[in-house]
Specification:
alpha+beta; 7-stranded mixed beta sheet; 40% strand; globular
């Protein structure tokens, strides 16, 4: 992932972490759309569409969420924990996302 994409992703994630609704300070709530869309990271790929709030704008999400089994055609509201990765590879995210709970799916 190039530096511009990483910086943009970090800004989006920081915004999510600061404004996301959650039951504890250790989790962030994300709204995930029902369809992945084409995007470009290191190479062309499919990205989730993720919002920071129920009525927020969707943004492309280039990462994975450990423990989350996304099913195309299903919308989700999930809580995730976000931790920093020490010394990530140059083409990888500096953040690791882990599923805490699926709040809603439809």
């Amino acid at each position: 992932m190039n530096a511009v994409v990483r910086l943009t992703l970090a800004s989006v994630v920081l915004g999510m972490a600061l404004s996301g609704c959650s039951d504890s300070p250790d989790t962030t709530r994300l709204w995930i759309g029902p369809e992945r869309v084409e995007c470009e990271g290191v190479a062309p790929m499919m990205c989730w569409q993720v919002a920071e709030s129920e009525d927020g704008d969707y943004r492309l999400f280039y990462d994975t969420i450990e423990g989350f089994d996304y099913q195309e055609g299903t919308s989700y509201v999930i809580d995730v924990s976000i931790t920093e990765v020490e010394n990530p590879p140059a083409d990888a995210s500096s953040l690791q996302y882990t599923l805490v709970e699926i709040v809603e799916e439809n």
